[in-house]
Every structure is written in structure tokens, then in C-alpha cells.
Amino acid sequence: MGGIGSDMMTRATRDDVLFAASVSPYTRATVEIAEYAQRKKIPIVAITDSEVAPLARIADDVVLVQTKSPSFFHTMTPAFAVAEVLGALVAGRNADATRESLLKFDAHLSNLNTHLKSKTAPRKASVSARGHNGSALED
User: Fold this and answer.
1) Which of 21, 92, 106, 130 is most exposed by smallest CB count within 10 Å?
2) Could you read off the pLDDT of 67-113 as tens digits, one per residue?
3) Fold of 7-111
4) Residue ranges per domain, the chain?
């Protein structure tokens, strides 16, 4: 079961698992959704940056990720990588059911016109890819 925010929690049962990710500064909504799952006895796997993070304290299992970065901002790449790997492992356990569920979910999003439609026309060369006289630059 997948979704955004608390949408999918209405159908979640003890047979499901909540993957919750939050790093400092911790997101209130994510922690509250995890607390709701805990009250419903839904197993929780936390992806977080500290053993004492709010999610780590209530999760059944914790995956710790590094967020230190040489830039001013912390990095989310390790958390995204862990989430992607865990999602693929879970999905791979029952590929046919996963595919069917994703097709239904995509149809639902399409019916709601959730995503912008991509344009199929080729893009024009950008200004930075043109020479000073306006001609396209070649490799």
C-alpha cells in the first residue's frame, strides 16, 4: 500500500508496514502518522538520522542514515536510497500484485487529472546552447 501523507492509513492493517522517513528537523505530520500507525498496531520501519529521533522511539525497526553534507544543507540522498531499496524489496515479493496495485493507483491519479501531461514535441535548443549569432552549438 502506498500513498501520500495519511491517505493510505485508512485502509492499513497489521498485515501492512509503514515506512516513515524524517530527519532533523523532524516533521510533525510524519511523526503523527507514525503514532497513529502505532495505535493501530501497524508495524513501523523508520528511516531517520538518530537513534533518539522521534520516529526511532516508536518504530519497530530503524534504519539510520547519514545526513551530513559539505554544503549548508543536509543531504537526503541516503534516506531516499534506503526508501527506494526497501520499496523495491517489498514490491518484488509479490510482483504481480504490486503491478496490479500500481496500475490501479495510476488510473486513479489519471482520473483525477493529478499530473501534468508531458509534451511530446522536441525541445528547442536553449539560449545557453546557442552561439553568439544564435546558431546552435555543435559538439
Assistant:
1) 92
2) 988 888 888 899 999 999 998 998 888 889 889 988 998 998 899 99
3) Rossmann fold (3.40.50)
4) 7-111
